[in-house]
């Protein structure tokens, strides 16, 4: 066999191996081909840093003491969010996002630990939730891979709202939220988007003035 023929065979083997590796990677990623995923999918490790292992998050989770993420509601939930499974930052449990929001009036607050206006807004979101009670579910979505920093930030702020860890920003992409933070999305019980608010709020009164008119029919 000639040298050129041997090199051709080697190149072909390498290409086949690379293709198999890429196929396996896509198969393990719930974000790829999301339409075919299900609630049984596991949370992708890419939503958080490698350093944020279950063991490393024990202490930050204890300090944050977050409220539980909502369980499955009534119905399939927002169509755009179906198939997205994220980690509940408070306890590490997987959350089928669409099913968790189904049948509820929801205020999604998208933020990151390094965002100054987000830190100013989170206590106002917590106060708004306190005022609204069970009529509205305020759910925060942390959009950075550093889950430990998010938990420590919430602990420092004294904010215990349920939080989803979304390092890949899947929710923002699915709902077509502008690339700004903080941003707030108001969802009706039928899963439709009532409003997208790409702005920050300083007080619960400001939140109520912007959100309440959007949810008036569902209250």
Topology (elements, then pairings):
Blueprint lengths: L2 H26 L29 H7 L20 E4 L5 E3 H5 L4 E6 L4 H17 L4 E6 L4 H11 L5 E3 L4 H6 L7 E5 L5 E5 L6 H12 L4
Helix pairs in contact: 2-5, 4-7
Structure report:
This protein is of the alpha/beta class and 219 residues long. It folds into two domains: 30 residues; 180 residues, Glutaredoxin, CATH 3.40.30. The chain contains seven helices and seven strands. It has a seven-stranded mixed beta sheet with strand order 2-1-5-4-3-6-7. Helix 2 runs parallel beside helix 5 and helix 4 crosses helix 7. The chain is globular, with a radius of gyration of 20 Å. Keywords: Cytochrome c-type biogenesis, Disulfide bond, Redox-active center, Signal-anchor, Transmembrane. This is Membrane protein. Pfam families: Redoxin. GO terms for molecular function: oxidoreductase activity. Its main location: other.
């Amino acid at each position: 066999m000639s040298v050129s023929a041997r090199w051709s065979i080697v190149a072909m083997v390498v290409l086949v191996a690379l293709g198999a590796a890429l196929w396996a990677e896509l198969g393990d990623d719930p974000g790829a081909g999301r339409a075919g995923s299900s609630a049984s999918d596991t949370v992708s490790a890419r939503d958080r840093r490698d350093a944020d292992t279950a063991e490393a998050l024990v202490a930050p989770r204890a300090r944050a003491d977050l409220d539980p993420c909502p369980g499955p509601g009534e119905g399939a939930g927002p169509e755009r969010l179906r198939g997205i499974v994220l980690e509940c930052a408070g306890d590490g449990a997987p959350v089928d996002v669409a099913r968790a929001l189904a049948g509820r009036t929801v205020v999604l607050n998208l933020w990151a630990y390094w965002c100054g206006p987000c830190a100013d807004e989170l206590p106002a979101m917590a106060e708004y939730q306190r005022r609204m009670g069970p009529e509205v579910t305020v759910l925060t979505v942390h959009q950075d891979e550093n889950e430990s920093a998010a938990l420590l930030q919430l602990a420092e702020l004294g904010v215990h709202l349920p939080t989803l860890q979304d390092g890949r920003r899947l929710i923002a992409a699915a709902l077509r939220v502008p690339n700004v933070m903080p941003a707030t999305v108001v969802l009706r019980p039928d899963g439709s988007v009532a409003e997208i608010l790409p702005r920050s709020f300083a007080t619960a009164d400001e939140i109520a003035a912007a959100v309440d008119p959007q949810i008036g029919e569902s209250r």
